[in-house]
Specification:
Blueprint: E1 2-6, H1 13-27, E2 33-37, H2 40-46, E3 52-55, H3 63-81, E4 85-88, E5 101-104, H4 113-122, H5 125-144, E6 147-150, H6 153-163, E7 168-169, H7 176-179, H8 188-195, E8 201-205, H9 215-228, E9 234-238, H10 254-263, E10 269-271, H11 280-285, E11 289-292, H12 301-308, E12 313-316, H13 319-325, E13 329-332, H14 337-349, H15 351-365, H16 370-388
Parallel strand pairs: 1-2, 1-4, 2-3, 4-5, 5-6, 6-7, 8-9, 8-11, 9-10, 11-12, 12-13
C-alpha cells in the first residue's frame, strides 16, 4: 500500500510530536510506502528513512496560503505519486481528493466556548475572527474526508456533537525507550537553571505560550502554594519564554509576563525556553510535579510523558485529561488557582500519595503505544483502499 501523508501544517507542539513518532513507524512497516509532504525542517530532522519519500512542497506558510497550495497543487502530486490513500493531518481535508482520504482532526479550539470567551475578554478579535473562519473549513473537512479520526474518545464525541458526523477515535501513542534514548545533555545554562532549584518544590509545565493552555491560572496559584509551604520554596519551570516573538502563533505573551511581576513571583517562575524534544526527558526527571491548567485539549502528550517519567500529575478537570490519565492524576476546576494550589499541596504533603501516583502513572503510560496507533491507522487505511478498489 502506498500512503500520501500531508503534514504541511505541523509546525509546533503535538503536531510535530505526532510526526516525529509516526513517520519512523511507517518507515518500518513491511508492504507500506509513504510519501510525506512536510516542512523542510521536519525533513532535515527525520533524515533519510526506508520506504519514506518526500514531496517537494514548502510548509510553515500562513494558513490561507497553505490551504490554497494544498487544494490547488496537492491533488496533482497525489496522482503522480501513485498513492492509494491520503492521510491529511492538519485539521483540513482535501476537497475532492483523488484517492480515499482519512482526516486527522486535532484542534479543539474550533469547538471551545472557553477559547472564544477568552479571546473576547482579551479583546483579541483578530484571532477570534481567524479561528471562526478556520472552524468553517474544519467542519466542512469532516464531510470532505471519507473518515475522520480524533486522538481521544472525548474529543471524538465533541467533534461528533459539533458536526453530526461519525468520528473514530484512535489514541496517540508513546514509546518511553524512544523518548529517552538521546544520551546528550542539556545546555549548561538550562541545567544551571534546573540545579538552582535544588531543595525547592519544582513544578513543570511543558508548552509554548498560548491562551488555551491557561498560563494565568497557574501563575496565580504560585503565591497561594508558597504562602502555605513552611520554609520550602516553590519554583515553576516553563518550557517557553513569556515574549510574543519567542512563541509560535499570534498570541500576546506580555500580559502573562506582567502578571508575574504583579504577583511578585519573578524569582519563582523560571523560563527555560524551548527544549529540543530529544532532551525533554531530562527536564521531567528534574521536577517533582507536572501541572497543566489547559482548558482545551485533544490528547496532551506531556501528560503521558510525565507519567512515564515518574512525575505525578495535577491537571485541569477536562474529559480528555481524565481519559488520558485515568486514576493516575489529581484534578482541579480549570479556572481555579485555589483548587490547583490545593492539589499540588496534597501531593507535596504526602510522600505515600506521591508514590501511589508515580506508580499508577507509569502503569497508565504503558497503555499508549505508537505501534498500536499505527496498526489501527493502517487497518483503517487498508479497509478504505480496498473499498475504493
Amino acid at each position: 500500500m502506498h500512503l500520501f501523508l500531508n503534514c504541511l501544517a505541523a509546525s509546533a507542539g503535538g503536531g510535530l510530536t505526532y510526526l516525529r513518532n509516526v513517520v519512523p513507524h511507517l518507515s518500518g512497516r513491511s508492504g507500506v510506502r509513504t510519501t510525506v509532504a512536510a516542512s523542510s525542517n521536519l525533513r532535515q530532522e527525520l533524515g533519510d528513512l526506508p520506504n519514506i519519500m518526500w514531496a517537494q512542497l514548502e510548509g510553515n506558510q500562513s494558513t490561507a496560503r497553505r490551504f490554497y497550495q494544498e487544494q490547488a497543487i496537492l491533488p496533482g502530486l497525489i496522482r503522480r505519486s501513485g498513492a492509494d490513500l491520503l492521510i491529511s493531518s492538519g485539521n483540513f481535508a482535501l476537497w475532492r481528493s483523488p484517492v480515499p482520504q482519512i482526516l486527522l482532526s486535532g484542534n479543539s479550539l474550533y469547538t471551545s466556548a472557553d477559547f472564544y470567551r477568552d479571546l473576547r475578554s482579551r479583546r483579541d478579535y483578530r484571532i477570534w475572527t481567524d479561528t471562526r473562519i478556520k472552524s468553517i473549513f474544519a467542519k466542512r473537512s469532516v464531510y470532505w474526508a471519507d473518515r475522520t479520526v480524533a486522538p481521544s474518545r472525548a474529543f471524538a464525541e465533541e467533534l461528533q456533537r459539533w458536526t453530526g458526523a461519525p468520528i473514530l477515535s484512535i489514541h496517540h501513542g508513546f514509546d518511553f525507550e524512544t523518548f529517552c534514548k538521546n544520551g546528550s545533555t542539556l545546555l549548561v545554562p538550562t541545567q544551571q537553571k534546573l540545579d538552582s532549584a535544588n531543595g525547592a518544590l519544582r513544578l513543570l509545565f511543558v508548552s509554548h505560550y498560548n491562551y488555551y493552555r491557561n498560563f494565568e491560572t497557574l501563575l496565580r496559584a504560585i503565591p497561594l502554594i508558597q504562602n502555605r509551604l513552611d520554609k520550602r520554596r516553590v519554583v515553576l519551570f516553563l518550557t517557553c519564554t513569556l515574549r510574543s516573538e519567542k512563541n509560535p502563533g499570534s498570541y500576546h505573551a506580555e500580559p502573562a509576563a506582567q502578571l508575574v511581576q504583579r504577583l511578585g513571583i519573578a524569582e519563582q517562575v523560571v523560563e527555560l525556553g524551548a527544549i529540543p524534544y530529544p532532551l525533554l526527558h531530562h527536564v521531567y526527571g528534574a521536577c517533582d510535579i507536572y501541572v497543566t491548567p489547559a482548558y482545551a485539549e485533544t490528547f496532551a502528550h506531556p501528560l503521558v510523558e510525565a507519567m512515564a517519567s515518574g512525575v505525578p500529575v495535577v491537571a485541569a478537570d477536562l474529559p480528555v485529561h481524565r481519559e488520558v490519565c485515568g486514576e493516575a492524576a489529581l484534578f482541579f476546576q480549570r479556572f481555579s488557582p485555589q483548587e490547583l494550589a490545593d492539589q499540588v499541596l496534597r501531593l507535596e504533603a504526602s510522600p505515600d500519595l506521591r508514590k501511589t501516583f508515580i506508580e499508577s502513572g507509569r502503569i497508565r503510560s504503558r497503555e499508549f503505544s505508537w505501534e498500536k496507533h499505527v496498526d489501527e491507522l493502517l487497518d483503517l487505511a487498508t479497509s478504505l483502499a480496498q473499498d475504493s478498489r
